[in-house]
Amino acid sequence: MASPLVRLAAEKKSADVTDWPDRIGWIVGLLLFVALVYWLMRQGWKWRGTLQGDLPPLPQSPETPGEPRLTMSGRYHGSTTAGQWLDRIVAHGLGTRSRVELTLTDAGLVVERPGASDFFVPVTALRGARLDKGIAGKVLTEGGLLIVTWAHGDKLIDSGFRSDQAAEQGAWVSALNDMTDTHITTEGTAR
Asked: Any transmembrane segments, and where (predicted)?
């Protein structure tokens, strides 16, 4: 009597290992599901931009913004409604993460973003700065993000930046808060 293994080895055709039609069906189904989720996320992003359509266009940097007080290279992580670190603002490209070159002058804050729209925050719109640990979609260690609060239209906005040299962020907080305090004091005495 031959053993069962010998009989299996003697057969001319081995058993099918893979059920290809079934496997292809699962792969196509999974790809369609991923495409649907991506499409829904994109529609949500567009819808959020539509809801924020009342936000005026971003100010552009003046021809001569003045002598730079501070400069910084790093990353722009996004903007949110001030005090609401999860309420991302996507209108006018404010939701697009990118590299950033910040320049602080007497006129305000110049934000240059390669691959995304640049904008300018006039000194009259600056409301303060702080170090924080997170902004919508980005959480770091305590004090890892430079958050600049500024007014745009009738909305207060927090914008999050991370310097390539994290140690310089403290100087930015001091300089921005000094400019804000000076402007508020000057504005208050002018009235």
From this structure: 24-41
